[in-house]
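Propose amino acids for all 585 sites.
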């Protein structure tokens, strides 16, 4: 990857700086189709993505299973139908599906054999999302070029660019985890399925941000967060059917576990590039320090909630869209036929096809992993799967030690006797639970904008009301998540250049640009209700935290204080040493 390509990637990637990016992307966005390759890619001989649900013989088995189950009054969910259809396939049919599973997808391009994700689907961004993206891209361009377009500040310093990219990856992951852990109690538990307790926890965590524990000297909201971020993978591995119980905005734990894996792999590759280019630049006599001082990584990657939501224009555009829907689509007959309204909706019949396709891909992937492990249950096969999960060979050896310890102590939860069997079961459990939850999560996202096009106009009217409500409430909800993330993540101990540091630059950014300060309140009440049923202070000054932001470990911006791949592996419970982040080492 050359420098020009790298900068282009970062320019498109920086949009994810908004923290819980999924909240922004799903606030009115629509998943509209299977993702197809561009004309240029097709010209290079790459076919468009083939739907697995349209190939024989599985297509016929799906139709037969659906008809039989419907006639017998049995479960006709995607999972039930696909379990039925899969049993009808012989080994050669299964291998045909496996071969097509990742064919012509982005996963193939990175050499992945055991992964498939939402990237296979086309997502239309809302205009509010585009406004925010434009603002953040402008912020990045200013940081990279200053007042001299074309004069790239890091033109002769590859390492500074990759450190910026790595820092952003870590920042994104922390923010995604924060959107989950904002609902935690003091012990790191999430009360799945209880809206009342979820609301109570969120309010307590937000109201406790500016309360300092006299013993530890950190925010009282950090205690639950530090435990919660380490339990995400445990929640996923336990396999509870959280997605069926919960409505947005609580992210499914298995979806977060997948995000951790993706971030970990990207960070690991970026760390390798930093090391490689650092050595090359040193050989050429290039000085990275000067460019680092010119490019303040922490200032670019840490943004306050007010700047993100209000100053960017995101909130204003959300309000404009809500008003457009109110004026043109609410209490209007056949509103779904109006292009102004139809652009916010999707049809259930089309969504059902997308959902089934994704469920089949997840089913096939899980079966592929199980088959390949069972046919070749040895260290080489286990390593090949775990390498794609971001574990190095050295870390695999650490995992073996952990598993053997579990076997010896009787703490192993899997039905296994050897290290290989236990690791195999851990892998399969995670794949099964993660893939099932991802399929259900997609279904939830599709339902946010869909109406039943077979049942007249009433379902369309209800869908438009829901979409309008999302636009009315999502800005403040996102500001809450982002403020929470900026503050609690500032207390995480992160190793950087051999030293333990805290990213207090995030706290400093929030103090400078606080969406909930009295000055930026804009007439909001002292408390408000959010779309997830919570109610919290809408005036929240953070002066009690100001001393903590002084003397930041990363004030000069020269060091990217962020998670590395090894720390993410510990969060995912693959490796031993599960000490809570923030504790003394």
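Proposal:
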């Amino acid at each position: 990857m050359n420098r020009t390509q790298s900068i282009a990637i970062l320019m498109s990637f920086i949009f994810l700086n908004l923290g819980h990016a999924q909240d922004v992307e799903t606030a009115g966005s629509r998943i509209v189709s299977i993702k197809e390759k561009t004309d240029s890619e097709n010209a290079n001989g790459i076919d468009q993505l083939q739907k697995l649900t349209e190939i024989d013989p599985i297509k016929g088995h799906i139709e037969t299973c659906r008809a039989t189950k419907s006639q017998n009054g049995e479960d006709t969910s995607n999972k039930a139908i696909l379990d039925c259809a899969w049993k009808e396939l012989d080994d050669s049919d299964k291998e045909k599906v496996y071969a097509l599973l990742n064919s012509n997808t982005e996963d193939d391009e990175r050499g992945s054999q055991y992964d498939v994700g939402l990237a296979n689907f086309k997502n239309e961004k809302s205009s509010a999302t585009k406004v925010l993206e434009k603002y953040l891209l402008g912020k990045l361009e200013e940081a990279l070029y200053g007042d001299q377009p074309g004069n790239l500040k890091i033109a002769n310093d590859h390492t500074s660019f990759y450190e910026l990219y790595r820092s952003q990856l870590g920042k994104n992951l922390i923010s995604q985890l924060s959107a989950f852990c904002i609902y935690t109690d003091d012990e790191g538990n999430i009360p799945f399925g209880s809206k009342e307790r979820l609301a109570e926890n969120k309010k307590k965590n937000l109201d406790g941000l500016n309360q300092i524990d006299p013993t530890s000297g950190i925010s009282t909201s950090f205690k639950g967060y530090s435990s919660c971020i380490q339990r995400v993978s445990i929640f996923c591995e336990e396999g509870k059917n959280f997605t069926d119980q919960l409505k947005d905005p609580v992210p499914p734990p298995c979806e977060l576990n997948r995000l951790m894996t993706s971030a970990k792999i990207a960070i690991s590759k970026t760390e390798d590039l930093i090391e490689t280019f650092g050595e090359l630049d040193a050989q050429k006599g290039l000085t990275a320090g000067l460019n680092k001082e010119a490019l303040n990584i922490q200032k670019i990657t840490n943004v306050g909630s007010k700047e993100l939501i209000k100053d960017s224009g995101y909130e204003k555009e959300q309000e404009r869209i809500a008003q457009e829907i109110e004026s043109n689509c609410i209490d209007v007959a056949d509103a779904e036929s109006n292009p102004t309204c139809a652009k916010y909706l999707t049809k259930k019949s089309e969504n059902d096809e997308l959902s089934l396709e994704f469920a089949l891909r997840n089913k096939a992937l899980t079966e592929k992993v199980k088959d390949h492990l069972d046919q070749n249950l040895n260290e080489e096969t286990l390593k090949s799967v775990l390498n794609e999960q971001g574990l190095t060979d050295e870390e695999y050896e650490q995992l073996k030690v952990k598993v053997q310890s579990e076997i010896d102590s009787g703490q192993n939860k899997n039905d296994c006797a050897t290290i290989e069997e236990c690791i195999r079961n851990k892998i399969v459990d995670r794949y099964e639970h993660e893939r099932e939850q991802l399929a259900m999560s997609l279904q939830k996202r599709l339902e946010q904008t869909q109406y039943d096009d077979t049942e007249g106009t009433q379902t369309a009217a209800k869908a438009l009301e829901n979409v309008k409500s999302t636009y009315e409430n999502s800005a403040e909800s996102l500001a809450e998540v982002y403020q929470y993330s900026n503050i609690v993540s500032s207390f995480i101990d992160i190793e950087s250049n051999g030293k333990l540091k805290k990213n207090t630059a995030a706290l400093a950014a929030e103090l400078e640009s606080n969406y909930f300060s009295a000055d930026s309140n804009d007439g909001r009440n002292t408390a408000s209700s959010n779309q997830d049923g919570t109610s919290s202070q809408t005036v929240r000054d953070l002066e009690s935290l100001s001393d903590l932001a002084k003397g930041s470990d990363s004030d000069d911006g020269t060091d990217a204080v962020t998670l590395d791949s090894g720390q993410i592996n510990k969060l995912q419970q693959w490796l031993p040493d599960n000490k809570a982040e923030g504790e003394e080492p």
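The CA atoms of residues 489 and 531 lie 25 Å apart. The chain has two domains: 3-29+125-345+471-517+531-571, 52-116+350-447.
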